[in-house]
Design a protein that fits this description.
Blueprint (H helix, E strand, L loop, with lengths): L2 H16 L3 H39 L6 H10 L13 H10 L2 E3 L3 E4 L2 E4 L2 H11 L18
Antiparallel strand pairs: 1-2, 2-3
Length: about 150
């Protein structure tokens, strides 16, 4: 059902209200709510699929790389962060730059509408970073900390 049909439902409900037909109004409004929710869910699913693609595309840059190579790439791009912090580690900051807020827990990248499993090499990087193996990546810009 398109927007025009939804507006017609509202207009019909308005007429029913005027004529004290509250039962019909409730039915029309319930149908309208159902239609609106279906549109919202459809948009959310499309957004989640788009977010997943962005995250997977960003992670593809590390395919086949060692944790040390990943660290060098992140450092070259200026993605530093905090150990043990799923929102502010270098990988989370890198992925957040690709697609809004992303949390990286060592196994997955979690974002609005979904989650992506990390490849083994990225998992190893995250683990080693949290263990202090890449001190050059610790620190960085905390300006975005207030955004989340």
């Amino acid at each position: 059902m398109g927007n025009r049909e939804m507006l017609d439902l509202v207009a019909e409900a308005q007429n029913d209200l005027y004529n004290d037909n509250f039962g019909k109004v409730r039915g029309r409004l319930a149908k309208l709510e159902e239609l609106i929710m279906a549109k919202v869910i459809k948009k959310q699913k499309a957004g989640a699929a788009e977010n997943t693609k962005k995250i997977m595309d960003a992670l593809a840059a590390f395919k086949g790389k060692t944790p040390e190579e990943i660290a060098a790439d992140l450092l070259a791009q200026g993605h530093k962060g905090d150990t043990g912090d799923s929102r502010h580690c270098p990988m989370a900051r890198y992925l957040t730059a690709a697609d809004g807020e992303v949390r990286v827990d060592g196994e997955t990248a979690d974002f609005e509408g979904g989650s992506v499993d990390l490849d083994d090499n990225v998992r190893r990087f995250v683990t080693l970073f949290d263990q202090g193996e890449f001190p050059d990546l610790v620190g960085g810009d905390d300006e975005d900390d207030d955004l989340f």
